[in-house]
Amino acid sequence: MAGHNKWSKVKNRKGAVDAKRSKIWTKIIREITVAARMGSDDPAANPRLRKALDDARAANMPKDTVQRAVSRGSSSGEGDNFEELTYEAYGPSGVAILIDCMTDNRNRTSGEVRAVLSRNGGNLGTAGSVSFGFKKKGQLVFDKTPEEGLVPTEDKLLEIGLEHNIEDVVDDGDSFVVTCPSEDFLALREAFQANQFSAVSAEVAMIPDVQVHVSGDDAVKVLKLIDVLEDLDDVQHVWTNVDIDADEMERLLG
Counting CB atoms within 10 angstroms of each CB, which of 98, 150, 220, 247 has the fewest? Predict the structure, then answer.
């Protein structure tokens, strides 16, 4: 499938190493709160909440913190103040960027996003100027030499996935990238887990139809812009169609 990329896996590894835990927890808490507000506070009946709770466990968030977030969302409390926004932008070398935000102050968020883009060689696009080139998909990445779970093979991943509307399995060198319709993501992930296959990255992602390859100084500029955007408190996700060679990505992220 066009749009699978090395960025997801490397970004996941980088985030696990050097992201600030407090910022990660803040983003997850907001997602839990909004997910509980928009649906049931029962994760079995609310796939979005179930995914957010899984993320909280992976981030080692205390159970009482998680429960407070669920309670706020299921009552008429803080969860009512948040709204979800997506900004469409262009970065250095013309790369397309989608910026998903969750905020209680639209003006503050807009100003911060604009300022970061302006200082780092980017600019906002009009509605629809970027989003048309992305598709919402479930994406799971499996290491060929995992630290835990069974060693995956393409045939085995396909065998399990065919029961859950898998779309593709791509051999990405040292990993397999699995894609599926976004609505089948949780069922597919749970099927892999039940068969002892552990993904190093698993998310509902905005996958680009076409990627823009960058290298050298342009790659440095794009990565800096993405890092600064992701560091904003109101930004939940940054999706891009940038393609950077895996070796160069590893070197740049250090």
Answer: 247
Task: Name which of 246, 248, 252 is nearest 8 in CA terms.
Answer: 246
List the chain residues with pLDDT less than 70.
Answer: 1-20, 76-80, 254
Given this model, what pLDDT does residue 18 score? 47
pLDDT of 1 reads 30
- pLDDT computed for residue 173 by the predictor: 85
Which pLDDT does position 16 carry in this prediction?
47
Instruction: Give the integer Cα–Cα distance in Å for 59 and 45.
Output: 23
What are the structural domains of the chain?
A: 6-81 (1.10.10.200), 83-132+210-253 (3.30.70.980), 134-208 (3.30.70.980)
**Token output for 167:** 């779309």
pLDDT score, position 7 = 52
Q: Write out pLDDT tens, residues 197-233.
A: 999 999 999 999 999 999 999 999 999 999 999 999 9
Distances (CA, A) of 170 to 23, 182, 191: 32, 17, 18
